[in-house]
Every structure is written in structure tokens, then in C-alpha cells.
Amino acid sequence: MKEFKDDYYEGERPLYALCDAKLTNTTFGVGESPLKETANLDLDGVVFTYKYPLWYSNHIKVNNTIFETLSRSGIWYTNDIEITDSTIQAPKEFRRCDGIKLDNVHFSDAEETMWNCKNIKMHDVYVNGDYFGMNSENIYVDHMDLVGNYLFDGGKNIEVHNSRLVSKDAFWNCENVTVYDSKISGEYLSWNTKNITFINCTIESDQGLCYVDHLTMKNCRTVRTDLAFELCTNIDAELNGSIMSIKNPISGKIVVDHADDIIFDGKPQTIDQSKIQIIERDKQ
After folding, report:
1. How much of the chain is helix, strand and coil, in % rounded to 5?
2. Tally of CB atoms within 10 A around 117
């Protein structure tokens, strides 16, 4: 394996098509695509300062590395990449990648990041930015702390554990989502999604959980949540505590300690109240 240590490179494609190499304490200055078309690289203590650092690359390990603000659109069309203990300051990282592993990674500007990717595992990830994970699939997350709207829009096969998500329009247009032991705060949660499950979660949402088919909730709390479940089908929800309001659910069962308001104002052909069961424990 070739070794590069304490080096500095600039200009376009300085290490184009490099394979089977280890780079330690190396900085890439101004110049596009420093490691394009590379494979089997081990990067430790690297600093990327400019655009498109890892495109069309395969089998990349990255540790203790910084992607600075201008290294935008940095990792596209790359397969089998593992990043640990690193900071990513640039937006639009990860596009059409397959096989991503992140452990202790901080995204300070994650706008339009992780789009159209698949087979993703993330642990201890800190994210700030809108449209994270759009149209991506086969995602496993443990301990994500995210502030940013439109999380995982259009995603498929998503499993989230032990996370805090402050996100308007999170999990829109998704399929097959399960969220465990997490706190979610944001308007319009999970609209137009099919097969989504929340287990041991706390949710705060204005008009959240609407237009969902096959919505399951187990041992969850809905704090300051109103106008929920509108036009949802196949609901199986068991909630602890109260909910501000339930509006126009179509079918299934909702169990809650107390609902401040239950609203049915839909068109008769849309809402058949015989198909939805709402049970308030404090009235039994």
C-alpha cells in the first residue's frame, strides 16, 4: 500500500485514480476533484478545502477528517465509504452513493445531503440542514440529533433509534419506516406515507400524522399535537396521555387517555365513522 503523509496538494485532480493507498495528515487546497476515480483508500487526518473531493470512488475509509465549507458536493457516485470521527461543513454531500457508514460525524450544513443513496448506517450523527436523506433507502440510524426540515422525504426502508428530530415535514412520502425511543418535534409529520410505526416515542406536531396508510403507534405520547390522523387509514395507535385534537380519521383504532377534541367534518362519502374506533381511557 502506498503511503502519503504530511503532504499538501492543489490544482485539479492531483491524485486522480489513486488506488491502494493511505493518506495521513494531508491537505487538499484549491482545485477540483482531488481524489476522483479512486479505490481502496485509507484517509486519516485529511482536510478537504475545495469541491468534489471523492467522486466515482470505491472502498474508502475516512477518519478524523474535515470537509470544509467549499468542499461542497463532495461525495457523489461513490460506493462502500466509511467515515468516523469527522466533521463535514459543506452542503450537498453524498449523492447516488451505495454503502455508507457514519460514526460520530457532525454535519454543520447538511442542506440537500444524502440524496438518492442506499444501504446507509449512521451512529452518533449530528445534523443541521434541510432535506437530509431525500429519496434514499435501506437506512439504519442510531442516535441522530437533527435540526432541519423535510427529513427523509421520499425515503424507503428506514429504521431510527434513540434520536431527537426537530423537523417540519419529516418522513413525507415514505414507505416502511420504524422509529424507536425517539423524540420528534415539527409540523406536518409523516404526510403521504405508507407503513410507518412509532414505538416508545414522544411526538409534538401541528397537523401531524395525516394522509398515512398503515400507521402504528405503540406506547407513544403526543405532546401539544393537534388535528392529527386526518384521512389516515388502517390506524393502530395506542397513546399515553392526552392529544389536543383528532380530525377525520378514516379507518382503524385509536386508544388515548384523553382527546380534547374529536372532529368529524369530512364529506359523508369520505368518512364512515363505523370504520374508525376512538377509545378514551378516562371515559371508560
Report:
1. 0, 50, 45
2. 25
d(CA 223, CA 212): 19
Instruction: Give me 152's grid cell.
Output: 427523509
By CB atoms closer than 10 A (0-12, 13-18, 19+), residue 177 is buried
Of 124, 78, 73, residue with least CA distance to 102: 124
Contact 128, 151 (CB under 8 A): no
Distance, C-alpha 127 to centroid of its chain: 9
Looking up cell 447538511, which residue turns up?
A: 110
How much is the mean pLDDT over the chain? 96
Backbone angles phi, psi at 32, to 5 degrees: -80, 150
Give me the domain span that covers residue 248: 2-283
pLDDT digits (tens, 9 = 90+) for 258-280: 999 999 986 656 788 889 999 99
Please report where in the chains the cell 402504528 appears, as a residue. Answer: 216
The dihedral over CA atoms of 213, 112, 52, 55, expressed in degrees to the nearest 10, equals 0
Distance CA 265, CA 267 (A): 7
Number of compact structural domains in the chain: 1
* pLDDT per position as a tens digit, 211-244: 999 999 999 999 999 999 999 999 999 999 999 9
pTM for the whole thing? 0.96
